[in-house]
Design a protein that fits this description.
The complex is a heterodimer of chains A (261) and B (379). With 261 residues, chain A is an alpha/beta fold. Chain A contains six helices and eleven strands. Chain B is an alpha+beta fold and 379 residues long. Chain B contains ten helices and ten strands. The chains are: A alpha/beta (261), B alpha+beta (379).
């Protein structure tokens, strides 16, 4: 069973700061990590490989330093690492990114593609579903449990008030949530192999035969108009006194703010 | 000169830290309180390759460098010094002498299982009357045909009751003094091998130290490690490396004390201000940070010397002497920063203080380290 796991290198914080002038993420001084959901995707892929054999390839699109995220995945047990790195990919929105990842996936070959639900720096949860559309694959999102016999998968798809049980034939694409499993730690030997023995395959736009109009800024139907950090909330106010007094004060304050008239 | 760690070393730090914080931190205070050996987390550390890090792959290890090893012990000890010493003993005191002096058959049978984390090992040198004077071995190995008959006892042996493999020192020829000591690698299930009483300790309470007793224990001659009479040399060479592990343990304890102090000083308010705004507290913090940084440089330097095949007896002694002293000071002052709360078991600095003391004692006391350093400088 050949499995591709899509991973993203993200800043290690959910409290991302944005440069108010340029509207881009401030990455300086923020350590980079493998996106947490993607580690769950990798763990599931490794478990399937242990059961059915085959190969796990981790795939990422990003700047050269995204190699570190791939090597960490390799230290956890991934066999191959592919990094899509080209200036032509820059400025891609989720649609262009998912197209690019999809073209690379075609070149690698797969029975199953596993993505994390979403990245902590963008929170779109769009890459997986869009990749499935580009590749005309059945997709199951928000997977919290998965079983496979190597030919088909049966997944539990988490909903707010329960779950759906969905079956799909392979090849397919799933996006997974943290409830699915507990990712393993890299082993010491895995770290040695990832850094000394294994190579990251780096592909540019030409290598994956990408259509130039579908990648990067040009292939992106959306563009970011403005990024901003949310204004910090003002300090809360605690009213004091008896319930009656506090209610009175509250009404006055709400009237002041024109919430009540 | 380059002070940055390699990406590989950074990954080791990240992994060891993540493991320590997620798996060990939740149990650290409890296993200390109950003096309980943490078999499950030790097993997990072994499975990840943390018990034979620098052993080459063909012998069950990972072929990692010694700085990475020091970093791993530091990170684990930052959360729990008991796990730190368990690791240090397996890596430095068991795997290393087997790697360095073992035959291929000994490596296959004893090194592989320890290095790959399947079993633990221990190092039997210290005796009731052979502490700093390790040459005064009363344990005797008498050769009879193709085997040795061993009688005697050991004390304070870390991991002993949890070990399958023992690196054991015994006198084979008393008339030759330290040159009459030999080293054996012994299966713990050998008839005549028994575990004595378990030590009750002030610190590193979740690691285990026991007596070992040998009564007419028959050990095959093929289990002699190195040559007859080479034992004292093997012990001293092994302890050189062990000191890097203990220095890294001390460093981790000091780092933990420092981090807890910074956190507490920012939270705790007195006279209407966080105590971090008072110079008295700031001086504690700056002293700790400066001394820890200096200790770290010495520890990594010693590990670097070992990895590069340079002489490291002196740099390892300096690292242990200095880092253990820093650990004592940092933990003592961390309690001072915490005031009365630091004296209670509600705050981890109390445990760090108790754990730090042993780093000045085992694998050569501070005074022995100074003797080693002076011996090298004045020769």
């Amino acid at each position: 069973m050949n499995i591709i796991v899509c991973v993203k290198q993200v800043p290690d914080t959910t409290d991302v700061k944005i440069d108010p002038k340029t509207g881009t993420l401030i990455r300086e001084g923020v350590p980079s990590i493998v996106n947490p959901d993607d580690k769950h995707a990798l763990e599931e892929a490794l478990r399937m490989k242990e059961k059915f054999g085959g190969k796990v390839t981790v795939l990422s699109m990003g700047p050269p330093q995204a190699e570190d995220a791939l090597r960490e995945c390799s230290a956890m047990g991934a066999d191959d690492m592919v990094l899509l790195c080209d200036r032509a990919f820059a400025g891609a929105d989720t649609w262009a990114t998912s197209y690019t990842l999809g073209e690379a996936a075609k070149k690698i070959g797969y029975d199953l593609i596993i993505c994390g639900r979403e990245a902590i720096d963008g929170d779109t949860a769009q890459i997986g579903p869009q990749m499935a559309e580009h590749l005309h694959l059945p997709q199951i999102t928000y997977v919290k449990n998965v079983e496979t016999d190597g030919n088909k998968i049966v997944c539990e798809r988490a909903l707010e008030d329960g779950y759906e049980k969905i079956e799909a034939s392979l090849p397919a694409l799933i996006t997974v949530i943290a409830d699915l499993n507990k990712p393993r730690y890299p082993s010491v030997r895995g770290i040695v192999e990832a850094y000394r023995e294994k190579k990251v395959t780096v592909w540019n736009a030409k290598d994956i035969c990408a259509d130039g109009t579908c990648i990067g800024m040009e292939g992106s139907p959306t563009s970011v108009k403005r990024s901003f950090a949310p204004e910090p909330k003002g300090k809360g106010e605690v009213l004091k006194g008896s319930v009656k007094e506090m209610s009175k004060q509250l009404v006055v304050k709400l009237k002041d703010k024109n919430v009540l008239r | 000169m380059e002070f940055a760690l390699t990406k590989e070393q950074e990954m080791v730090r990240k992994t060891a830290r993540e493991f320590a914080e997620k798996e060990i931190a939740p149990i650290a205070a409890d296993i200390d309180e109950r003096a309980e050996f943490p078999a499950e987390t030790v097993r997990k550390l072994g499975a990840l390759g943390f018990m034979g890090m620098t052993v080459p792959k063909e012998w069950g290890g990972s072929g990692m460098d010694d700085i990475s090893y020091a970093i791993a012990v530091e990170e684990v000890s930052r959360v729990c010094a008991s796990h730190g010493v368990t690791m240090s003993v397996c890596n430095s005191l068991v795997c290393w002498p087997l790697m360095k002096f073992g035959t291929d058959a000994q490596k296959e049978k004893y090194l592989k299982p320890v290095a790959s984390g399947k079993v633990l090992g221990c190092f039997g040198l210290t005796e009731p009357n052979a502490g700093t004077d390790a040459g005064s071995q009363a344990t005797v190995a008498r050769k009879e045909g193709d085997k040795y008959i061993i009688n005697g006892s050991k004390v304070f042996i870390t991991n002993a009751s949890k070990s399958d493999v023992t690196i054991l020192f015994a006198m084979t020829d008393k008339s030759k003094g330290t040159k009459g000591i030999s080293t054996f690698v012994v299966d713990s299930n050998t008839p005549g091998y028994s575990i004595g009483s378990i030590e009750k300790k002030m610190g590193i309470r979740a690691s285990i130290q026991t007596e070992l007793v040998f009564q007419d224990m028959e050990v095959p001659a093929e289990n002699l490690l190195g040559k007859e009479g080479q034992g004292f040399k093997i012990a001293m060479a092994t302890l050189d490396g062990g000191r890097i592990g203990i220095a890294a343990q001390a460093l981790g304890i000091a780092q933990a004390a420092y981090e807890e102090s910074v956190k507490y000083a920012k939270q705790r308010e007195q006279f209407g201000k966080p105590i971090s705004s008072f110079q008295a507290i700031q001086w504690f913090i700056s002293d700790m940070a400066t001394e820890i940084d200096a200790a770290r440089l010495l520890v990594y330097k010693a590990a670097f010397d070992k990895w590069k095949g340079r002489p490291y007896t002196t740099s390892a002694a300096m690292a242990k002497y200095f880092a253990s002293d820093v650990a004592m000071k940092a933990t003592r002052n961390a309690i001072q920063v915490h005031g009365g709360y630091g004296f209670t078991k509600d705050y981890a600095v109390e445990r760090f203080y108790r754990d730090a003391k042993i780093t000045e004692i085992y694998e050569g006391t501070t005074e022995v380290q100074k003797m080693v350093i002076a011996g090298d400088l004045l020769k």
